């Protein structure tokens, strides 16, 4: 441990003429967060932005007028990050710096600022983890005390950031089931903007715990200064932006304290989840690239391993699982070049077979009426087809119609004295993950599957219900307000145990679709299911928003049937493929319903995706033209870090006769390099005019390529959709 390595003892004079020393500079390759933390005084915020050189740091004027982590009690009217009630009833905190130290880890430095109350034995450590290979700083806190009685935590944000007023716009994601990740953009106005979640289990359907602040007016994809923030938490959260009478917007993010006040015992440490911050001068896309790099390098499971191309059985057969059907699907995906088959819901239940969604969750025994040779039979078939096998589970749940519920009714979350409010199928209930016995049960489910069938390659882990009843049979009466927090602690403990023993397993986080797209779960999960809505046109909007924070490698994106099962829209296969290929490609369809031509198109797409998989899954994302701008076209591209290969996507989002679509300029290429253009998934009778030709990066970024609005296909194949995927390779 290096003590005080990031402390710059500058002895500066701030604009108010106050001398302060002990300036702390937390740096990533291109960003700096500057704080003032003089021993015995308050910790203050000075600066967050592009990396400062020593000269500018020395001359830094102003700042230091806001607490870096505001607490409640001695400035009551302002919003605060932490509010407590001491054991003796005192409602106030007054924290001063008691020490600072920095740990240098392999790819990051962790600065800890230790604060203590002036009077009470109450301690708060604020951490800043600065990555050295990605421009992200994580901040979180640890609270503890040695007061005689327990201290009640009423508010406990992970972090706080003052953002200078000006023309600051907020970009956030909202939505609902089947419409996740929708972009909302608004200028920050006086008053309070709150983005929150109270689902209890899933936290990214209706809103996301990640936001971006564009500091220079209306958000732009490729220019302008942007602060990005992502709360790394799987449970209820609250983001607050208070625009009061001061010069700053005050941004707070952390666990949602509503109905969650926490009684902290003497000696216990309460750690808040990390809030990840990034800063970019390259617009929203730049902030996204920072998050993606950090996400792949440090957060999501196996961020450096290419994902397999899979077929998931859900939309193909729903609950109609049987061995012959599974074998046929495996054979079909294998014949198209796929690498993995995932059997979804419907395979389990003994006393209560899972025929639809109203029974059997919790009874994780294979239904041998449907699968006479069990899971091993399926794995053997997968091997025969030379693909891998994956399976669906929903471990945190039960149905009241299940053997599990009959045996352990006390394991479900329920309010004392009240009738159970039930979920999906009219019988679903949530297990009480605070209870270590429930944690063991869930761990054992995965452990048993993996011990009996070590060849299982992939688990789709679903979670299809909110906490609808506040009550834990495990927690004591005085700790009932810990329910939401303990649920997610329990969830994380289970995930940690699974990962300790099954580090190579691929696990998808599904939660009624995109209910678990967050950096709290991603350390244990490889990817998430973006949405139960597989409609390609709507997916452009959802995947666009989701890509603000999450890399393509984590975004499961499947080719599904037409008409689509959610929107009933009929979209040609070419377009469905071109959208799915911009994420982690898979299929969610009954292949036996496809004709030979469709199968051939999918086979070609899968083989071409294999060629560009690394560009999509590990490349830098440049969003070029937003579908939300309603210009009739959406476009984005991925570029390798070496800038020698790129994949460009162009999707027409609406069609009118004689319409005029904007030309889309490319971005992220090397202006000096020349790139040869090759169209992928081509259906046109003639190649595009630029096929096989080579252009400089400078030309492509200044002009783009003129994409024909329609496809040159035989008359009977004409339709209102058009899309293109172009592969660019340095020559
Ligand atoms: C949820 C998931 C779907 C599917 C079903 C199975 O809705 O989001 O993908 O797995 O459950 O019941």
Could you characterize the architecture of this molecule?
With 731 residues, this protein is α+β, with helices and mostly antiparallel strands. The protein has three domains: 13-299, Beta-galactosidase, Chain A, domain 5; 310-618, Aldolase class I (TIM Barrel, Alpha-Beta Barrel); 622-730, Immunoglobulin-like (Sandwich). It contains twelve helices and 39 strands. The strands form seven sheets. Strands 9, 10, 11, 12, 14, 15, 17, 18, 22 and 23 form a ten-stranded antiparallel beta sheet that branches. An eight-stranded parallel β-barrel has the order 24-25-26-29-30-31-32-33, surrounded by five helices. Strands 8, 13, 16, 19, 20 and 21 form a six-stranded antiparallel beta sheet that branches. Strand 29, helix 8 (483-501) and strand 30 (506-509) form a beta-alpha-beta unit. Helix 4 (323-335) packs parallel to helix 5 (374-384), helix 7 (436-452) runs parallel beside helix 8 (483-501) and helix 9 packs parallel to helix 10. The longest helix has 23 residues, at 596-618. The chain starts with 6 loop residues before the first strand and ends with a strand. The model is unreliable at 1-20 (pLDDT under 50). The structure holds alpha-D-galactopyranose (GLA). Residues 314, 344-345, 357, 392, 462, 464, 510, 512-513, 529, 532 line the site of alpha-D-galactopyranose.
